Amino acid sequence: MNRRGQTLTGPLGGSGMVGRWGASSLVKSVQRGTINITTGGSASATITAVDLNNSIIRYLNFTNGALNQYDFLPMLELTNATLVNAYRYSTDPNGTTVSFEVVEYLPGVIKSVQRGNATFASTTPKNTTITEVNLNKAQLDFMGWRFNNSGSMVTYVNMWVRLSSSTNIEANTQSPNTQQFGYQVVEWF
User: How confident is the model at residue 91 (pLDDT cuts 50, 70, 90)?
Assistant: First the structure.
């Protein structure tokens, strides 16, 4: 109850959670790191276990020393409660370093999290179906993309993604080469 005698209930739930409304933060933990892909197409980082239903990952960009024009572009994924993976198409030995942040919230802050990736090789928009979300309370996070340059030095490397409806992610590019993008859709209470 508040000082007016009203019972406070809301998205954080009833008993036990109401007291947390007055807390200074609804964040349980934040973990940051980098992943170095020195050879091959992937590498990983281990984090302290998080509840996947209450956690989001943020892609904080990358650096590289790759020689092959676009094959170094990385994609990031929160694979399980203790593992963050980074992927690229290239086997270039010059390496790619990806930066990330994993934020775990207290229960009752995030309604749902959907993670995944989609592959396409066309300049036609790619549509990926997701479980329905409330567009007024959902955010789409782009988790990077892997791009197969196939040796061609004349390629367009621009892509955009958007929540085109409550059940669809649309991606578009100007390249006909194989691409895979990662996504995370967070629906908040």
Answer: low
